Amino acid sequence: MANTPLAERYRDRLPLTAATPIVTLGEGDTPLLPAPRLSASLGLEVWLKWEGQNPTGSFKDRGMTVAVSKALEEGAQAVICASTGNTAASAAAYAARAGLPALVLQPAGAVAIGKLAQARALGARLLEVRGSFDEALAVARELASRGTHVLVNSLNPYRIEGQKTAALEILEQLGGQPHVVALPYGGGGNTCAYVKGFEEAGRLPRMLAVEASNRDNTAASAIRIADPAHAAEVAAALERSRGRVVTVSDEAILDAWRALAQEEGIFCEPASAAGVAGLAHAELEPGTRVVCVVTGHGLKDPEAAVRLTPPPLAVDPDPDAIAALA
């Protein structure tokens, strides 16, 4: 199944036609990993849906394969997005694969270097907006409304359709329904997508959408969104799932980021650890089976690793000196 494009694997669950040209980079089919040390420390049964193994290193690729495929089918001449980084990288990659120009509007100074490098290398036209993500998104929507570009942010319903496939994979991989699913909450599109996928399968777990306490200026740049575009839909989806929004500090997110790396071997970008950070505040019953969605790879934000971990020590090529420091 690993070599089958995600859109083909779930074709019967997606809004595709026989005429849809599938634009794929091998997305989906990401691992669901047990987290034994986190489970022991939290008193829960924790699993990690490791979305950093998607082609551009984040969950965005699931939605982008469908959004760009449909854009191509519908005769699009270009795509546009506002982005704090991951959407930009994904849009650039899938647009390049489809032979379409990609225009990316990013809030000035708010995008991690790994994501900038991806979008630039993939040939997107990058423009820094002097303002917030929300202002950049408003401009992207206005330009899309003029018919010159197709918007590929999660306001595009095809993005949600593609991203819901992660919920279907979890049910297949786990062999049943988790009690709880916890994931980062930035714009809210991914929360809506998971709920949609679980509902369509008739297996809706309790959802925890975990946000940073300081949305405007969080160190978790991927969820640095002050005004979530899907806030109303998220509230309704959480109510249906008996879930809730969990708010955590940057300190808690970074502690979870370190724990994922140093206890479970998962190197993610800081925002991707938000779901794990939320577990300590969710008041779950011992033994609860939880899937934490880890949304993006750590190489998206290498500066975070440089800033938050000890630097290497200089040492002479002397076995005794090395042994003394080991």
Strand content bin: 15-25%
Would you report the number of β strands? 10
Q: How many domains comprise the coordinates?
A: 2
What is the mean pLDDT? 95
Major sheet description: 6 strands, mixed
In DSSP terms, counting alpha (H) and pi (I) runs of 4 or more, how many helices? 14
Rounded to the nearest angstrom, the radius of gyration is 20 Å
Please give the alpha-carbon distance between the first and last residues. Answer: 43 Å
Write down the secondary-structure element order.
Answer: HEHEHEHEHEHEHHEHEHEHHEHH
Q: In order across it, which strands form the biggest sheet? A: 1-2-10-7-8-9
What is the CATH architecture assignment of the largest domain? 3-Layer(aba) Sandwich
- How would the global form be characterised? globular
Helix content: 40-55%
State the CATH class of the largest domain: Alpha Beta
Which secondary-structure class do the elements indicate? alpha/beta
Could you list the spans in which at least 5 consecutive residues all have pLDDT below 50? none
- CATH T-level topology of the largest domain: Rossmann fold
Describe the structure.
The chain has 14 helices and ten strands. The longest helix has 15 residues, at 250-264. The protein folds into two domains: 6-58 and 158-308, Rossmann fold; 60-155, Rossmann fold. It has helices spanning 6-9, 36-42, 60-73, 86-98, 113-121, 133-145, 157-163, 165-174, 189-201, 231-241, 250-264, 274-279, 302-308, 319-325, and strands at residues 32-34, 45-50, 79-82, 102-107, 125-129, 150-151, 180-184, 206-212, 244-248, 289-294. With 326 residues, the protein is an alpha/beta fold. The relative contact order is 0.15.
